[in-house]
Specification:
The complex is a heterotrimer.
Chain A (H helix, E strand, L loop, with lengths): L6 H37 L3 H5 L15 H32 L5 H15 L2 H15 L5 H24 L4 H9 L4 H12 L1 H17 L25 H10 L3 H35 L3
Helix pairs in contact in A: 1-11, 3-6, 3-8, 3-9, 3-10, 4-6, 5-6, 6-9, 7-8, 9-11, 10-11
Chain B lengths: L4 E12 L2 E12 L3 E5 L6 H8 L9 E9 L2 E2 L7 H6 L1 E4 L10 H11 L7 H11 L3 H4 L12 H13 L5 E5 L7 H14 L4 E5 L3 H7 L2 E6 L2 E7 H6 L4 H7 L5
Parallel strand pairs in B: 3-8, 3-9, 6-7, 7-8
Antiparallel strand pairs in B: 1-2, 1-4, 4-5, 9-10
Helix pairs in contact in B: 3-4, 3-6, 4-6, 6-7
Chain C lengths: L1 H28 L2 H6 L3 E2 L4 E2 L2 H32 L2 H16 L2 H23 L9 H25 L3 H9 L4 H30 L2 H6 L17 H8 L9 H29 L6
Antiparallel strand pairs in C: 1-2
Classes of the chains: A mainly alpha, B alpha/beta, C mainly alpha.
The complex binds adenosine-5'-triphosphate (ATP) and magnesium ion (MG).
């Protein structure tokens, strides 16, 4: 029964080493990416970046910051998240409360949400732009909001569906037996019970929306000024990074790194908050 | 006890995290007999059985202390090869879990991983399927996926699969609880034959099954071994009050 | 409520319809074969052969998959079968984080790290000159982007396999690796395929990062060190500006349609497989 170094043991050892190596590569990439962004970004970070909009000659290396893009990103993505929430909440409640569990309609909706989720954001961008032309809207905050809300709708709906479908059937029945209608049940009982999950779904969707460039590239346009109306073009952080990096001037490229740091920190905050909410939520949900 | 023990448990304690599942168990399991482990749900029967082939370490946060000796060798000795220990014991679980391959391959799997040559494989597979009483039913469909068999047939296939690595001990955790009465009978009949060649340890919560099969009985309650002894003694003249109540169905 | 529900379900069809309508002018003038398989791209002359872009996409996606599949699979096996439970739980948020990093950040990182790596180390090693902006760089960046997709789904597939099946194999005296190789991988093969198909389709439509590092030269790449011009980059670079050239927007929406169809196709395939094995993955 004593241990011996047989061929199968060697094979196992080799593969185990390989697996550890691969895991190391994956997590190493994460560390490397975030590390690079932080190191490169901090060097060129200053207060101007987040408090000023680009001034004349900014893209040649003159004074200014990316406040326009920060505000643009926030306004655009917050509005889009609000719209997507208003659209996806009824959908998710419908397939969980009204439609019978595993009914054909619910399956169909879930399936199309899965497909929507898989469509690349550039296709949303192209589609959004066509729709805008159809309605005679040019690249603007409004166009960006509409496109991003469509893009994050499936992300939010699926994340919400996952939480709401965990609500036990007894909770529905308890509510009905108290004389509540389906609508009241859906709105009050279910939403309250799953509130942290819904908020976290919204945060995840916000994170995806705020980081995406392809969907706003031609729908929101770009502007050095903070938009004052829905019909003005609006700058966004990802595009600001992209454009600054595209200039031939090192000073401007440096600012792209600082902008990348801002975006990364924003994403980190959003994703940590979302995770914290769901972790707490998992502990409190009635199972 | 007349026969010499095959498996000796000495001061075995097991805990999952902070909850103790087995407390200081010491017992000898007789050679070539059927030993039944009985006790109410959650008392630690499965834990004890899984301690015998070191499957417990598989989960995290399990701490094990004490000794389990097979042929006077401690299976928990870190110098021992875990695969060789497990090879000595066949495991039959509550529900049959055929491997995702054909009927033939299921039985051939064990011998193959232990490096048995190919040319005698047909014979080997046939031999063990016959012992498990399945050969006649499957001889024409050996290369179909094992999942197409009925649950009862799958359980006998799992038995054949376990026997094919030539174990000395068969560990069975409620092996008939997922089966219909007919299939259960077949498995029980199988065990009665197998005990001529193997030491069998069976966990069961069916007292009548324990009466029908067991030569030796362990009664466990809340992780403690309350009483153990020859089946006749435990069922007809239990020494301990708790055992008496359990046998009479007062506690369950 | 029902209306919104149906509406959102209908969005897929609406998008397909919109793209088809807009791509129609070019489909009416030229055969599908000519658009997809001609490599002559001269919008001003009215030539819209998309082959260079399709090949660019295939190169980039192919490289990404070749790198990502083994690494993700081995990582998933390690995390779900070998790593201590605590490490497994601990690693999940980090994998999610990798998935949450915006693609423009991957692009920045690609330019800072991968492009110089290819230019100064990998290409010279093979005795080739490369600017670094190449399908290889894009493939490497993309592969990292799809690690989390493949790892996450593969781990869920492994998770869905009952512990008792592993134990059945271990109890016969198999080593853990034998159990993984003969039982786990065989049982989860459909799920692993689905995971990789989803990863592939994610890579296929990824735009910004690829746009930033692939080099964007309208030519069919002949080696991994050549620049490529993938379809999404084509759309991103030109759409919204070139509306004055006749048929240009139809051609660009045609390429969006190609992306759409391919991605939907791969999604259908992988969802079908996952549905067959009763898994719904987020
Ligand atoms: N993996 C585990 N992690 C934590 N606790 C466990 C684990 N497995 C079992 N336990 C606990 O250990 C105790 C003994 O469990 P065990 O499965 O051995 O009982 P059992 O006698 O086989 O019960 P049953 O008749 O229901 O199968 C129980 O309290 C159970 O909750
Ligand atoms: Mg049990």
């Amino acid at each position: 029964m004593k241990k011996k170094m047989t061929a199968k043991k060697i094979e196992e050892a080799v593969f185990k080493a390989l697996m550890k190596g691969c895991a190391l590569v994956v997590f190493g990439c994460l560390v490397l990416i975030i590390g690079t962004v932080i190191i490169k970004g901090i060097g060129s970070m200053n207060l101007d970046m987040i408090t000023k909009t680009p001034e004349g000659g900014y893209y040649l290396g003159k004074e200014g910051g990316v406040l326009n893009a920060i505000v643009g990103s926030f306004v655009l993505t917050l509005s889009a998240t609000a719209i997507a929430l208003l659209m996806s909440l009824p959908v998710v409640l419908y397939i969980n409360v009204y439609a019978k569990k595993n009914s054909r309609l619910a399956t169909l909706i879930r399936l199309s949400l899965d497909f929507l989720w898989g469509i690349p954001s550039i296709v949303y961008g192209a589609f959004g732009f066509t729709v805008m032309i159809f309605f005679g809207i040019t690249a603007s905050l409004l166009g960006g909001i509409i496109t991003v809300s469509l893009f994050i709708l499936p992300i939010m709906a699926r994340a919400m569906d996952e939480v709401i479908s965990l609500v036990p059937g007894e909770l529905f029945e308890a509510s009905y037996s108290l004389g509540a209608t389906k609508f009241e049940t859906a709105l009050k009982v279910i939403t309250r019970q799953t509130m942290p999950g819904i908020v976290s779904a919204a945060l995840i969707a916000f994170g995806r929306g705020v980081g995406d460039a392809a969907s706003v590239l031609f729908t929101a346009g770009f502007s050095d000024r903070i938009p004052l109306s829905l019909l003005q073009p609006a700058a966004t952080l990802p595009l600001a990074i992209f454009f600054q990096l595209g200039t031939p001037f090192p000073e401007v490229q440096e600012r792209a790194y600082a902008s990348a740091l801002i975006l990364t920190i924003l994403i980190l905050i959003v994703s940590v908050t979302a995770r914290f909410l769901t972790a707490r939520f998992r502990r409190h949900i009635i199972q | 006890m007349d026969a010499k023990p095959h498996l000796q448990v000495k001061n075995l304690s097991v805990s999952y995290g902070t909850t103790a599942a087995l407390k200081n168990i010491s017992v000898d399991i007789p050679d070539k007999k059927i030993t039944a482990i009985i006790g109410p749900s959650g008392c630690g029967k499965s834990t004890l059985l899984r301690a015998f082939n070191r499957l417990l370490e598989d989960g995290d946060e399990v701490s094990i202390s004490g000794q389990v000796l097979v042929d006077n060798e401690d299976i928990y000795d870190p110098r021992n090869d875990i695969t060789q220990i497990r090879k000595k014991m066949g495991l039959l679980s509550q529900k049959p879990y055929p491997l995702p391959m054909s009927i033939f391959e299921n039985v051939a799997y064990g011998p193959r991983i232990h490096g048995i040559k190919k040319n005698r494989m047909d014979e080997t597979v046939r031999h063990y399927l016959t012992i498990a009483g399945l050969w006649e039913e499957v001889k024409d469909r050996l290369h179909e996926p094992a999942t197409r068999l009925s649950i009862g047939q799958q359980q006998r296939l799992c038995l054949a699969r376990g026997l094919a690595v030539e174990p000395e001990i068969i560990l069975a955790d409620e092996p008939t609880s997922a089966l219909d009465p007919k299939s259960s009978q077949k498995i029980e009949a199988e065990f009665k034959v197998l005990k001529n060649d193997y030491t069998i340890i069976i966990v069961t919560h069916i007292l009548r099954q324990a009466r029908r099969l067991a030569d030796y009985v362990l009664f466990i309650y809340l992780g403690e071994l309350i009483e153990h002894g020859p089946a006749r003694q435990i069922f007809e003249n239990p020494q301990h009050e708790m055992t008496k109540e359990y046998i009479q169905g007062i506690i369950s | 409520m029902l209306l919104i529900t149906l509406g959102s379900g209908f969005l897929v069809f609406l998008m397909a319809l919109g793209l088809c309508v807009k791509a129609w002018p070019i489909l009416r003038l030229k055969s599908l074969g000519e658009i997809l398989f001609s490599s002559s791209w001269h919008p001003l002359k009215g030539d819209f052969g998309m082959l260079p872009f399709i090949m660019g996409t295939l190169w980039v996606t192919g490289i990404a998959i070749i790198i990502a599949v083994p690494i993700s699979l081995l990582t998933a096996i390690y995390l779900s079968e070998y790593a201590p439970k605590r490490m497994k739980e601990f690693s999940k948020p980090f994998i999610d984080l990798l998935a949450g990093i915006p693609s423009v950040i991957y692009g920045v990182w690609g330019i800072l790290i991968i492009v110089p790596l290819v230019k100064d180390h990998i290409a010279p090693f093979f005795g080739v000159y490369s600017s670094g902006y190449s399908v290889l760089s894009a493939g490497i960046v993309l592969s990292i982007m799809i690690f989390p997709v493949i790892i996450h789904i593969t781990m869920e597939v492994f998770h869905s396999i009952p512990r008792e099946l592993r134990e059945a194999s271990l109890a016969l005296g198999a080593t853990r690796w034998q159990t993984v190789k003969h039982v786990l991988l065989r049982k989860s093969l459909p799920g692993i395929v689905a995971a990789n198909v989803l990863g592939f389709s994610r890579a296929f439509g990824e735009t910004m990062a690829v746009l930033m590092v692939a080099g964007n030269i309208v030519k069919i790449p002949l080696s991994v060190f050549d620049a490529g011009y993938p379809l999404p980059a084509l759309i991103a670079n030109n759409y919204g500006e070139m509306l004055s050239i006749p048929l240009y927007d139809a051609a660009l929406l045609m390429s969006a349609l190609v992306l759409f169809v391919v991605v939907i196709f791969f999604n259908v395939v992988s969802r079908y497989i996952l549905h067959r094995i009763n898994l719904r993955i987020s």
